[in-house]
Amino acid sequence: MLVLVLNSGSSSVKYQLLDMPAGQVLARGIAERVGNDGASLTHEVPGQEPLALARPLPDHAAAIGLLLETLTTAGPLGSLAAVDAVGHRFVHGGEYFSNSCLVTDEVVATLTAHSDLAPLHSPPNLAGIAACRQSLPGRPQVCVFDNGFHASLAPEAYLYALPYELYEKHRIRRYGFHGLAFRSACERTQALLGRDWREMRLVTLMLGSGNTANACDRGRSVDVSTGFTPQEGLVQSTRAGDLDAAIIPWLMEKEGLTAAQVVDLLNRRSGWLGLSGVSQDLRDVIAAAGSGHERAQLALAVHAHRARKYVGAYAATMGGLDALVFAGSVGLKSPLVRASICRGLEFLGLELDMERNAAQTEAIISRPSSPHPIVAVEINEELIIARDTYDIASQGGLP
What we know:
Elements: E1 2-8, E2 13-19, E3 24-32, E4 40-44, E5 51-54, H1 60-73, E6 85-90, E7 101-102, H2 105-113, H3 122-135, E8 141-145, H4 155-158, H5 164-170, H6 179-193, E9 201-207, E10 211-217, E11 220-224, H7 247-255, H8 259-268, H9 271-276, H10 282-290, H11 294-318, E12 323-327, H12 328-333, H13 335-342, H14 354-357, E13 363-364, E14 374-376, H15 381-393
Parallel strand pairs: 1-6, 6-8, 9-12, 12-14
Antiparallel strand pairs: 1-2, 2-3, 3-4, 4-5, 7-8, 9-10, 10-11, 13-14
């Protein structure tokens, strides 16, 4: 079965074409800087030179259209008719969906009605479904939900201290995100350390454009930094993360902002973009900081401080930890960010090896003498999505 996996982020679309159940990758690629200047698509077919296309990509629908076209013009497909099923990473299923499910009109309607829970991600996720319905009619499509991993949270972890009737009426609670990344990170940590991840207490920092911290206690997610929406928690590319809620009405009064404008400020103009004034791409912020840009340096320091605080808090939640895991594009490839976060965590038995930390590939990066290992892992959300898609599509369900 050929499964096309679409993983739409806030400013990117990653994709893979896999032969399942073997998991063989026939093609992969990424559309980057979607909605921004300098947008491009990189397409890779094993055994061939990567293809780089610089194209205007004003939105996610345009990015998906280009990648579908490229799968046929640059291979490995002669026609899109060869695709048997499509799996979509969907950020937020609320309390309506926790397990992966077949896409139906009813599912789309429910997800559309609650897309305001993840305003940066749900619209591109839905755009992916719509584009594939048009280009790949009749093929089963599957939604795999990012918050499903965190369905194991206890009420004391997922409830906010708001009037309880607001939870009953609106289901306002912590949901958590990046669950697919955490599923993959746990598996890769097990492979590196040779220990069953279901027997370890893991603190994982998923660091990319969107960031989430997770406490996984012997196979169960017990706490997560993202909450009702992906806004809460760590400093992210354009999201503010944790802040005093009273700031919001204060800003609305002082700046004359509407609710929609505040949402835009918190989701699209904050984070290390807002602090640095440089870019939403952390690579640009790091480069500017290295050139002496003070606000870029400050943005990196705030980012590291917030992440370090979550590591300590989650170790306390689980009564200790057995490993610290860095994942995501930044977590895997930025020795500078990892070193900044690990500074001062020796009291938890986490001792970073600066030479090992120079690696930008999957590795154990702690000292051999470190009581607890620190690892950097390469996640594969697409493989997780492909597995769930194959399982559901193999049951013979039709949309």
